Amino acid sequence: MIDYRENLKMAVDTLLAHKFRSFLTILGIVVGIVVVILLASVLSGLQRSITATLESYGTNNIYAFHQQIMQTGGRRSKEERMRKPLTLADAAAIKEQCPSVQDVGWEMPGMGVQIQYKKHRLRNTQFAGVSSNYAAINNLNFENGRFFSDSEDRRRMSVAVLGPDAAEAMFDDADPVGKQILVGGRPFTVVGVTAKSKKSVISSDADNFVVIPYGTLHRMTPENEMLLLYVQAGQGVRDQALDEVESLLRRRRNVAFKDPNNFDLTTMDKIIQQLDTITSLLGSVLIGISSVGLLVGGVGVMNIMLVSVTERTREIGVRKAIGAGRRDIVVQFLMEAMTLSGIGGVFGIVLAAALSWLVAWLVPELPASTPLWAVVTGLCVSVGIGLVFGVWPARKAAMLDPIDALRYE
């Protein structure tokens, strides 16, 4: 009967006898495991951060637009570019005719509008005209001031609400509420500043925005017809509301029974799923590329084990002469190879965990943490590399003739 503990002890003793050679051998495995686990940690943290950020905007919300909201690449088709935008009449119909819908808001994106306060000019700022219920539907909290009212929207008043980053860029530490900024050369009074959101890397500019009443922006840019609808479903009936809104918009936009929608409806769940798919695909590609390090480490293990077989030929001959069978020799060298690669895996896991902690400390928006599945997978892969790449050296050792092995010098 094979004594695995004895074989493990022999393997460890052999590795300790050649410390520097063993270190160079496992270096490739350490690097490969570090890269794989670090990528898994960062991507896992990124997914959690994205999910938390998107869910903060409301999981009951449905977003309606005349084109695809999540454009994954490539140009839009001619049919999509020629679609008629959604209208305020569509928003009113949804609110009146869809029983599962609680409220409907809207947003008109503003483009090419210059925003400044004295000499401070905003750059790369999200600017839009929105409905007065925009803050309630999107769960916005306020650091100071308030959101504009329905009356201010209907009267097309020149008032604005700033995100905290936009406020800081223009006013530094001063209170913006009550002060006037220039939007497209026109004076607007700041009535509120929202509280900082929980940022993620993908939404690092989520607090860099300026919104004004929809009616005011429509008067400034009457040619702009783009409209994104925010449909807030009742608690627990979002899927039912989604079906109701889809059916209503198909009727209003004269979509034939067999034709696909000429508009897009999506929810945070769908957006999160699409982002998860993209992140997983990116992770698979990066991990696949980084696996080259593991392959190099495996070749190193096989090479050093072949050298070990040659150096220990007389030892193998002695073991066979006193009764060791081929199976005993195979197990001995496989245990040695697996121990060597397993130690590399352990070092890699520890180093990757330390680097993940460092990334999370340096980039708080990216809460990278080493998931348990990555640790288990990394350890299994490292041991598996020793098993796979140790087969040939172990078989070569087992096939040695004991007489020739004893004569070897």
Description:
This protein has 409 residues and is an alpha+beta fold. The chain folds into two domains: 4-53 and 274-407, no CATH class; 57-269, no CATH class. The chain has helices at residues 4-17, 19-55, 78-81, 88-97, 134-137, 150-154, 164-171, 214-220, 238-252, 268-311, 313-321, 326-362, 372-389, 391-398, 402-407; strands at residues 61-65, 101-109, 115-117, 120-121, 126-130, 142-145, 159-162, 180-183, 186-194, 209-213, 228-233, 264-267. Strands 1, 2, 3, 4, 5, 6, 7, 8, 9, 10, 11 and 12 form a twelve-stranded mixed beta sheet that branches. It starts with a helix and ends with a helix.
How can the largest sheet be summarized? 12 strands, mixed
Poorly predicted runs are 200-204
Compute the number of structural domains: 2
Mean pLDDT: 82
> How large a portion of the residues is in β-strands, by DSSP E?
5-15%
Shape: elongated
Please trace the helix and strand order, writing H or E for each element.
HHEHHEEEEHEHEHEEEHEHEHHHHHH
How many angstroms separate the termini? 31 Å
Class derived from helix and strand content: alpha+beta
Number of extended strands: 12
Helix content range: 55-70%
Quaternary state, please?
Answer: single chain
Specify the number of helices: 15
Q: Please compute the radius of gyration using only Cα atoms.
A: 32 Å
